[in-house]
Specification:
Blueprint: H1 2-9, H2 13-18, H3 23-30, H4 33-55, H5 59-95, E1 103-111, E2 116-123, E3 136-138, H6 142-150, E4 152-155, H7 162-173, H8 177-181, E5 189-196, E6 202-210, H9 218-238, H10 246-251
Length: 254
């Protein structure tokens, strides 16, 4: 608009003398219709911006919608964890986990891209045994690696003495003393069953541990966990997009 006002009021006589070859351009600029073209353009731009301002969501409304969606996703995730938690607890009872609080059952979900597991849920009659230590577990280390390769792993030969147990863990499973010291349970029996989806792709592990080496019969426990693994595979496949993975939490800065 400022430029159009300049065009209307400026005297181009001097420019005609200095630049005779450009007289045709000066004739065009001096026409008053040029001013109205600029006015029309300005009005059009104003109308377009006004339309966009009225019809487009405001930044505040977009943030509100985003927060609402995030809350809904979190609610779904909480529901999924609640259901998986209940499922694992039911499997613990079916497997014969003792009410004395000497054993626990855990579900480790695999992260293929990182070649590791994370413990999704853990249940025990002893709440101290439900405590989680490390966040991630390599899929080529420890008893988890054994079952990941062989489908099933059972071991009730752990020494009672802590020092001897540490040596046993190192020789049998490659567990360093540093990692051994981080274990939240001095297990004397461990049973691990691999969970595979309908395409026979391994996706998780169900782990039963006990502080008593004679707590479970291997055949009975294997039978119970095999049934549990089949049902667990269905749950994890259906809800895989809503599992609260530590990797996702780290991406969000949590």
């Amino acid at each position: 608009m400022a430029f159009s006002g300049f065009v209307v009021t400026f005297d181009f006589s001097k420019q005609r003398i200095e630049y005779p070859d450009l007289s045709w351009l000066i004739d065009i600029v001096e026409q008053h219709w040029v001013f109205w073209v600029f006015v029309a353009c300005a009005i059009s731009a104003f109308c377009v911006n006004l339309f966009l301002a009225v019809t487009s969501p405001s930044r505040l409304s977009l943030q509100s919608a985003l927060n609402k969606q995030k809350a809904e996703i979190e609610a779904i995730t909480d529901h999924v964890v609640f259901c998986v938690d209940g499922f694992i607890w039911e499997q613990a009872k079916r497997a014969g986990v003792s009410v004395t609080g000497a054993s626990r059952i855990s579900l480790y979900v695999h992260e293929p891209a990182e070649s590791r597991f994370f413990c999704l849920v853990r249940k025990s009659y002893n709440t101290k045994l439900e405590k989680k230590g490390r966040t991630f577990f390599a899929d080529d280390e420890g008893c988890l690696a054994k079952a990941w390769e062989q489908d099933w792993h059972f071991d009730n030969g752990f020494p009672d003495d802590d020092k001897a147990n540490a040596e046993y863990q190192k020789s049998e499973y490659g567990i360093s003393k540093g990692t051994f010291s981080q274990l939240t349970m001095p297990s004397k029996l461990i049973a691990v069953k691999k969970v595979v989806d309908r395409n026979d792709r391994p996706i998780a592990l169900i782990v039963v541990e006990s502080t008593k080496s004679n707590e479970f019969d291997e055949n009975d426990l294997q039978c119970a966990l095999t049934i549990a693994a089949t049902d667990c595979a269905h749950l994890l496949t259906v809800w895989k997009d809503h599992l609260p993975t530590p990797s996702a939490a780290q991406d969000e800065g949590l």
